[in-house]
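REQUEST ID: PR-0412
SUBMITTED BY: lab tech R.K.
PRIORITY: routine
TASK: structure prediction, single protein chain
INPUT:
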Amino acid sequence: MIAAFLRYLWAERNASVHTLRNYRADLLQFLRFLGGERSSAAVFTDWGKIGQDQIRSYLGYLYRRKSSRATVARKLASLRTFYQYLLRQGKTTINPARLVRAPRVVRSLPCFLSVDEAIRLVQSAEDNTPRGLRDRSILELLYGSGIRRSELVGLNLEDLDLDHNQIKVRGKGNKERIIPVGNHAVRALRGYLDQRKKLRSRGRQGEAEPSALFLNRWGQRLSGRSVAQIVLKYMKRSGIARRIGPHGLRHSCATHLLDSGADLRAIQELLGHARLSTTQRYTHLSVDKLMEIYDRTHPKA
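STATUS: complete
OUTPUT:
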């Protein structure tokens, strides 16, 4: 049933590979928990016999393993979605996961860089080697266009339209959107593309990916983990003490746009948020900026 469920998510809901991987891991972990509880290693398939008590026991098991509230909430959400699928398939008559209250998750405000820090970070990638030009392009895109790490590593050569300062990205649910690219990023990308073939030529036969935009030293598509390591490398080089990854540059992009007066709907489109409420988190980040303006301009401040 899990395999059929994953096929459904891929075909009907355009779930990304990352999303499918998470669902699979969550459901297999639940199966392993049930197997241990029943002293059996056999795969449990009679989903209709699972009740809310077993799901509560599973959540307790996760807490004992020091899982965070956010992790527990996500795994419960995976079970809820899976049981909704089973209901539609007639494999069960109730969704027991809906009868279990999800843990309350307090969302912390995302970390972000100041404008000066962001500029210093991007400019710290100044090597004119193929890898240095690649890294500069990556930092320019993460901060300049606010794309997700998964969107960045998924870019192909045909997604670039540098003559019109645009790129096509595939976001969550494989939804495509066209986003603008600044002149600094365009220059960085053109410089990298001139040298990219030197990275590609190092790839072993059958392993190189000719269409991938960003390549590693072996000519293969760059991984998300490598992007995180690249950001960390230049954070250290630029002397920024805080530990902010690729998503922090996305947050920085959105916050600086909002501080400069950009419309919230425009930021939503740029970031590819399905709901405006997700974008509205950035309004809280600009309180300090608002207080600064108030103190400087209001006669009663």
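NOTES: Strands lie at 160-161, 166-170, 176-180.
REVIEWED BY: pending
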